[in-house]
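Please decode residue identities from the backbone states below.
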């Protein structure tokens, strides 16, 4: 049985390549401006090259094989993923050098990871507790292979990770005691610092958080461990992390698209962001009967709701604001005396938080200017486990 597109996607495919087709697609839609996204990819690649640091972009942001390929073509050494299911999707489509950034602990997850490695995929795992190490080592031994492990460090987020002290050193020795495991590096992510509004404060706190990581790496190397990889960082600290002299690679993700959360923070010394919003939700005005606002077709189900409101990017009077009106609708709040957009008008919104918004859609509507040029599946959607 051949899977066919639903009517909305079939309609949009027929628009590909036609003039002004961007404004004729079904809404709400996730619209990727390819020129802007390609520019963000190139800008981050140039930054990493100039800093002498590798890029390992986070696949959880885009969940797209096509975007992963574009990042690697621009110089990224591989990819990281938050989930095993995402790693499977990327690996099976030929993306190599993948790091899963969260520990795998269940027998099923360990078996799936071993199966990927058995089939020749370059996969690295993290560990932060002695408990699962034995099961992972046993599975690797039974498969006759060596699994590459990084120790996941807690440097303040308190989500996963082991403290970067004697506990991590003890874990390193435990890993080294198993012939089926090889310690290859450390992972450290200061997610709690990424959105500190003031850039100078964010720099100071980020560098403070990274000092124990550098000290731990030095101690392990002195003891004889080959710590070739120190990975972590993020979009909020991309220009800070490289200056610490600790990381060998950056796990940046949101730079690709940018969002309201990142646009709300400043960089150190208030230098401008080198990345522009390149991913939007396109919505349509469906009712204009109320005073002071018009109603659109994009509500809670069209945007992540864990952060700020969407930001109005285009299609509305200057000063317009967006708010949710329920599951399926939103409101475009108009400035006083502004002429309301007509029914059928298209409003473009910057995403409040890009990663979970992407996860709400099946496709990127890829545009250049006013033209729809392609539909790209969000390959990793639904593969979170």
């Amino acid at each position: 049985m051949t899977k066919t597109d639903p009517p909305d996607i079939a309609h949009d495919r027929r628009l590909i390549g036609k003039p002004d087709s961007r404004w004729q697609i079904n809404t709400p839609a996730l619209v990727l401006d390819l020129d802007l996204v390609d520019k963000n990819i190139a800008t981050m690649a140039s930054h990493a090259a100039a800093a002498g640091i590798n890029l390992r972009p986070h696949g959880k942001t885009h969940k797209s094989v096509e975007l992963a390929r574009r990042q690697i073509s621009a110089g990224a050494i591989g990819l990281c993923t938050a989930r095993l299911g995402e790693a499977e999707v990327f690996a099976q489509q030929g993306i190599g050098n993948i790091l899963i950034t969260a520990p795998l602990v269940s027998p099923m997850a360990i078996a799936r990871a071993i199966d990927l490695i058995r089939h020749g995929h370059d996969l690295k795992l993290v560990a932060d507790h002695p408990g699962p190490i034995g099961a992972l080592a046993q599975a690797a031994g039974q498969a006759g292979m060596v699994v590459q492990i990084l120790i996941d460090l807690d440097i303040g987020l308190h989500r996963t990770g082991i403290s970067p002290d004697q506990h991590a050193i003890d874990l390193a020795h435990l890993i080294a005691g198993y012939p089926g495991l090889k310690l290859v590096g450390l992972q450290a992510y200061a997610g709690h610092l990424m959105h500190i509004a003031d850039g100078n404060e964010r720099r100071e706190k980020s560098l403070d958080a990274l000092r124990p990581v550098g000290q731990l790496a030095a101690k392990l190397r002195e003891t004889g461990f080959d710590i070739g990889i120190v990975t972590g960082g993020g979009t909020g600290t991309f220009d800070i992390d490289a200056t610490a002299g600790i990381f060998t690679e950056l796990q940046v993700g949101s730079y690709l698209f940018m969002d309201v959360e990142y646009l709300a923070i400043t960089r150190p010394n208030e230098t401008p962001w080198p990345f522009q919003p390149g991913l939007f939700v396109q919505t349509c005005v469906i009712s204009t009967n109320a005073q002071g606002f018009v109603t659109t077709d994009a509500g809670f189900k069209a945007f992540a709701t864990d952060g700020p409101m969407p930001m109005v990017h285009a299609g509305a009077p200057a000063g317009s604001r967006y708010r949710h009106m329920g599951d399926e609708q939103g409101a475009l709040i108009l400035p006083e005396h502004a002429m309301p957009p007509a029914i059928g008008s298209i409003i473009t919104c910057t995403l409040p938080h890009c990663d979970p918004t992407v996860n709400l859609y099946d496709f990127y509507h890829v545009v250049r200017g006013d033209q729809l040029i392609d539909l790209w599946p969000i390959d990793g959607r639904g593969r979170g486990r």
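Observation: The first helix runs from residue 7 to 15.
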